């Protein structure tokens, strides 16, 4: 049976791509007098629950900001624990991903990951590549600026586009997200109203939803609330309300 929140979701107007800045693990732990790593461990439960929920709701793409290019500067013990948790997650969940038709994808400077993590990641991506229900993208060692710099490097080293003819599509096609739709809805947990270097290019017209809920407490109902909120907004893409009405009528 569908709950009240779920019945408020308009299936015709689902965001195709939901991106999430999973923040607040440290604060969750601090509130409970636990170490930060316990917060990250607890956050994995939210990851599992949100992935299943997104798939059940019919979301096509979910992207999770799991580790930023800047997060390498955290204490080594925390970085190591995060890498272990990631590896553990991939090994433990891969069968479930396959069962559920979820294709795993990753964006970021993946070559900076420890080799064992990189190998398990690549292997899981390969194992799940037939998944057609939903694409789960993990942003790892990811930075939006770094991504743009890498795209510019590719354009220059390709040598195929002359500078006068470089357009948006040339860049878009060289981003890590090449081939993916742009996020429609960007969620950030734990109340911070900033992007922290996440998908700077791709979120140009995303609707932003910030909740004070800390990531380890985030579950399906929070995702549904974000989607309902998104569905009650008017996306304009630079046009007037009048123009949009005409467009909808076509
Ligand atoms: C998000 O939680 C997880 C990562 C950045 C890896 P934080 O660890 O940033 O938690 P807070 O922001 O300190 O509460
Ligand atoms: C953003 O969170 C990165 C991830 C969620 C992986 P941070 O906690 O690193 O961002 P800041 O430091 O608050 O900007
Ligand atoms: Mg944080």
What does this protein structure show overall?
The chain is α/β, with parallel strands linked by helices. Helices cover 44% and strands 14% of the residues. Strands 3-4-2-1-5-6 form a six-stranded parallel beta sheet, sandwiched between helices. Strand 3 (102-107), helix 5 and strand 4 form a beta-alpha-beta unit. Helix 2 (25-31) crosses helix 3 and helix 4 (76-99) runs parallel beside helix 5 (115-127). The radius of gyration is 19 Å and the shape is globular. The mean pLDDT is 97. Bound molecules: 3-methylbut-3-enyl trihydrogen diphosphate (2 copies) and magnesium ion (MG). One 3-methylbut-3-enyl trihydrogen diphosphate is lined by residues 21-23, 65-68, 71, 192, 194, 196.
Shape from CA axes? globular
Strand order of the largest sheet: 3-4-2-1-5-6
Order of helices and strands: HEHHEHEHEHHEEHH
Oligomerization state: single chain
Radius of gyration: 19 Å
Can you give me a brief rundown of this structure?
By secondary structure, this protein is α/β, with parallel strands linked by helices. It has nine helices and six strands.
What are the salient characteristics of this protein?
single chain, 250 residues, 6-stranded parallel beta sheet, 14% strand, binds 3-methylbut-3-enyl trihydrogen diphosphate
Topology:
Elements: H1 4-7, E1 17-21, H2 25-31, H3 36-57, E2 61-68, H4 76-99, E3 102-107, H5 115-127, E4 134-142, H6 144-158, H7 168-172, E5 185-188, E6 207-210, H8 220-231, H9 241-249
This protein binds 3-methylbut-3-enyl trihydrogen diphosphate (2 copies) and magnesium ion.
One 3-methylbut-3-enyl trihydrogen diphosphate (IPE) is lined by residues 22-27, 67, 71, 82, 190.
């Amino acid at each position: 049976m569908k709950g009240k929140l779920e019945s408020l979701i308009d299936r015709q107007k689902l965001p195709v791509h939901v991106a999430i800045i999973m923040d607040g693990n440290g604060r969750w732990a601090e509130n409970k007098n636990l170490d930060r790593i316990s917060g990250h461990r607890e956050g994995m439960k939210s990851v599992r629950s949100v992935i299943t929920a997104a798939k059940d709701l019919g979301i096509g793409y979910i992207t999770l900001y799991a580790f930023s290019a800047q997060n390498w500067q955290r204490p080594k013990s925390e970085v190591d624990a995060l890498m272990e948790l990631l590896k553990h997650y991939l090994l433990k969940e891969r069968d479930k991903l396959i069962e559920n038709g979820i294709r795993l994808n990753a964006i970021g400077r993946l070559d900076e990951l420890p080799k064992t993590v990189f190998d398990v990641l690549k292997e899981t991506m390969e194992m799940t590549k037939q998944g057609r229900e939903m694409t789960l993208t993990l942003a790892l060692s990811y930075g939006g600026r770094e991504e743009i710099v890498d795209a510019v490097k590719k354009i220059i080293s390709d040598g195929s586009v002359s500078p006068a003819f470089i357009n948006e599509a040339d860049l878009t096609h060289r981003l890590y997200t090449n081939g993916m739709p742009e996020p429609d809805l960007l969620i950030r947990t734990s109340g911070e109203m900033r992007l922290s270097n996440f998908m700077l290019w791709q979120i140009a017209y995303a609707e932003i939803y910030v909740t004070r809920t800390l990531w380890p407490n985030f579950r399906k109902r929070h995702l549904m609330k974000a989607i309902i909120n998104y569905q009650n907004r008017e996306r304009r893409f630079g046009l007037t309300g009048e123009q949009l009405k005409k467009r909808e009528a076509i």
